[in-house]
Design brief:
This protein is mainly β. The protein contains two helices and 13 strands. Strand 10 and strand 11 form a beta hairpin.
């Protein structure tokens, strides 16, 4: 797996840590503290606090242009993730304490005990956002300029949450040293079909 893929998989977990949609942004450079009415918290509570959501997004690294399209679904402790790059598609899901890897080319699957720490969806909750300080800023992506809220972690990593004119979260930009990774939300909702956590019909289990 390339460094970019690893980075994006880590980002997929980390990006859900903050998101937004209610209080309007202030002037660039202004510092604010996220409260329950802040659009970061409102968006987070609307989609993630319930522990059930389905989202599709595209992610790419600025310096290399390497990109991936992803689908992520969560329903309680059940988790689904699929990503597709120029090298192909990878799919896995966690259900009932088991981790399933889907091998579409072989019409088969592998299964193993899941990492319990990876199933802790309760970590993704608005309570982890409340009280954190962010800086109002703007980011230009393509021909459009977006209002953003910049959070900085203890290790200096920056996360910019960018909203469109309707106040919807559109992009998350993560800056790590000289690396800059963009994530664009394509869709997000709280309706999660059970088929995401089922083995495709006709697929055979591989023993190893």
């Amino acid at each position: 797996m390339s460094k970019f893929k690893k980075l994006c998989l880590i980002l997929c977990a980390a990006l859900i840590f903050l998101c937004g949609c209610a209080n309007s942004s202030g002037k660039p450079g202004e510092k604010r503290t996220a409260d329950e009415n802040d659009r970061v918290c409102v968006f987070f509570k609307k989609y993630f606090d319930g522990g059930k959501y389905l989202t599709e997004f595209k992610s790419w690294e600025e310096s290399t242009g390497e990109s991936m399209t992803c689908t992520m679904a969560v329903d309680g402790e059940n988790y689904y993730f699929q990503y597709e790059t120029a090298d192909g598609k990878q799919t896995f899901f966690v259900k009932d304490g088991k981790n399933y890897g889907i091998l579409d080319d072989m019409k088969s699957y592998v299964v193993e005990d899941a990492d319990k720490n990876a199933q802790r969806q309760e970590d993704f909750n608005s309570k982890n956002v409340l009280g954190k300080t962010y800086t109002v800023c703007r980011e230009t992506i393509g021909d459009n300029t977006y209002e953003c809220e910049k959070f900085v972690s203890e290790n200096g990593e920056e996360s910019h949450y960018c909203f469109d004119k309707e106040g919807n979260l559109k992009y998350i930009i993560t800056k790590m040293g000289d690396r800059k990774v963009y994530l664009e939300f394509l869709s997000i909702n709280t309706d999660v079909p059970t088929s995401y956590f089922e083995i495709p019909e006709g697929y055979q289990k591989i023993e190893y």
